Amino acid sequence: MRLLSLLLSLILFGSLAARADTGEHVVLTGGPALRFMEHGKDASHDFYWFNFVDASTIWLKQIKSTAPAGDLVTWLVYRPSYISRSNEMGMDLVSQIAGKAKELGVTLYWFDTKEQLINYLNKGQDRDKIKITSFDYFGHSNKACFLFDYSNTIDTMSIAFLHVVDLKHIKAHDFARDAVCKSWGCHSGELYSKWWKDEFDVAMIGAIGKTDFSHGGLPALSDANCRWSQ
């Protein structure tokens, strides 16, 4: 009887340990500018509505091909900018993104506010059992903000963003201790990475200088004076 109890305890412990080791890979995608806002500018912020989506889907494919079996892959996308760009273009971009997520076999979660985003990171999964093991951001940014609707609601401005002061509302408990995090947007390595490390005790790779999404694929550093940092 004691042997049976020991075996059952070992099985239960093994099951809990396996669940505790389950990770979630989060890809966060901001929205495009409106072409109306960019008309006549010498340097447009995005030439193609799909720039951030294209980079995100490439990265999601890589995650799907390398993540341990059983890990979750979640794609968080800022919906309002794609709705407004859809209206401008006369195309249903939201359905196209949903189709991409289905094709990739990843879970798509739309968010309309930073509060919804923060709520998902904190409570979208049981963070005692499922930690965020990787986090990547594709979108507009400056050194202090992820800018989800830059030049989409107001020209050269954003009213939907995740500022460094908002990070205090995200729990450090959400992240695995060895989580790999990167912002692929501009300037994040100049301030955002430091605040991220201070809040979560997890490093974030970010750019010193600008990144370029305009050629499709994963973004590259804009010039030789830029570099990745954390």
List keywords for this structure.
24% strand, 7-stranded mixed beta sheet, alpha/beta, 7 helices, 3-stranded antiparallel beta sheet, 230 residues
Order of helices and strands: HEHHEHHEHEEEEEHEEEE
Low-pLDDT residue intervals, each spanning 5 or more residues: 1-20
Beta fraction: 15-25%
**How many discrete domains?**
1
Can you count the beta strands?
12
Report the C-alpha radius of gyration, rounded: 19 Å
State the end-to-end CA separation. Answer: 55 Å
Précis, in short:
This protein has 230 residues and is of the alpha/beta class. Helix content is 35%, strand content 24%. It has helices spanning 2-20, 35-38, 51-66, 79-89, 93-104, 114-123, 192-200, and strands spanning 23-29, 72-78, 107-111, 131-138, 140-141, 145-147, 161-163, 175-183, 204-208, 211-212, 220-221, 227-229.
